[in-house]
Automatic annotation (TrEMBL):
Provenance organism: Pedobacter jamesrossensis
Keyword annotations from UniProtKB, A to Z: Decarboxylase, Lyase, Pyrimidine biosynthesis
Identification of the protein by name: Orotidine-5'-phosphate decarboxylase
Pathway: Pyrimidine metabolism; UMP biosynthesis via de novo pathway; UMP from orotate: step 2/2
Protein family per UniProt: Belongs to the OMP decarboxylase family. Type 2 subfamily.
Length: 276
């Protein structure tokens, strides 16, 4: 999916919502445990309930890898179930020496070998360009670099001063030499608030994947105040706040209700910004 195609989906659905599929056996409704693949059944029902309200799905691969062979099968089948017109993100946070990163890229981008071909993958940039560029060799695929994250320990390194820049600013500046805004996005946590102004000064045209809205307490209006650009430029992720809205048999219905609340708020933001 190209940047323009993604923006067109945002305009069509009046939404820039990404639903995180962080699906865990100990959190999904217990009645689903009767199924052969409870997590896959859960994901399918969540997707069916929300696919008209969101423009992206983001399975966090840790929630699949931990179940071994069955987990990988569920990840593959979940990717296959995501509609083709919805942006798919493998939240894998990979990044290693060049030949290893090349194998990670094959894992998430080459369906001939792995049976998966996500539109994008999250990548840790701290080993430098040779750990990132193998992901960029795949045509029409995206790298989403970790820049300024939403976790409490982000300040340990990301905010450290490196000469004139903080470390996350150095990442934003340097990585733009590796790819354009047509192939690279950045992770910027919603809990960072007004820091989006600093981010946008450095990457005005890039899409930002924004976790932390919902259960982590990020404020959608504040993120949009500083982060919105002329093509929206935001994918706002909500995971637990949507998929675990209910632990009962009405879980898919309740997930839709939560997704709809965010979509309506996003629609109003897009209208006010003259983007739809």
């Amino acid at each position: 999916m190209t940047k323009q195609q993604l923006f067109e989906q945002i305009q069509k659905k009046r939404s820039f919502l990404c639903v995180g599929l962080d699906s865990s056996l100990d959190k999904i409704p217990q009645h689903l445990l009767k199924y052969e693949n409870p997590i896959l059944e859960f994901n399918k029902q969540i997707i069916d309930a929300t696919k008209d309200l969101c423009v992206a799905y983001k399975p966090n691969t840790a929630f699949y890898e931990c179940y071994g062979k069955k987990g990988w099968e569920n990840l593959i089948e979940t990717w296959k179930y995501i509609p083709n017109d919805i942006f798919s993100i493998a939240d894998a946070k990979r990044g290693d020496i060049g030949n290893t990163s090349a194998m990670y890229a094959e894992t998430f981008f080459n369906d001939k070998s792995s049976e998966m071909s996500f539109d994008s993958v999250t990548v840790a940039p701290y080993m430098g360009s040779d750990s990132v560029t193998p992901f960029l060799t795949f045509k029409d695929k995206w790298v989403i670099l970790l820049a300024l994250t939403s976790n409490s320990g982000h300040a340990d390194f990301q905010l450290q001063q490196i000469g004139e820049d903080k470390l996350f600013e150095k990442v934003l500046k340097t990585s733009q030499e590796w790819a354009t805004d047509e192939q690279m996005m950045y992770v910027v946590g919603a809990t960072r608030g007004s820091a989006f102004a600093d981010v946008r000064n450095l990457v005005p045209n890039h899409f930002l994947l924004v976790p932390g809205v919902g259960a982590q307490g990020g404020d959608l209006q504040e993120v949009c105040k500083y982060g919105l650009n002329s093509q929206c430029g935001l994918l706002i992720n909500s995971s637990r706040g949507i998929i675990y809205a209910s632990k009962g048999e009405d879980f898919a219905e309740k997930a839709r209700e939560e997704a709809l609340k965010l979509q309506k708020e996003m629609e109003e933001i897009l209208i006010n910004a003259d983007l739809v």
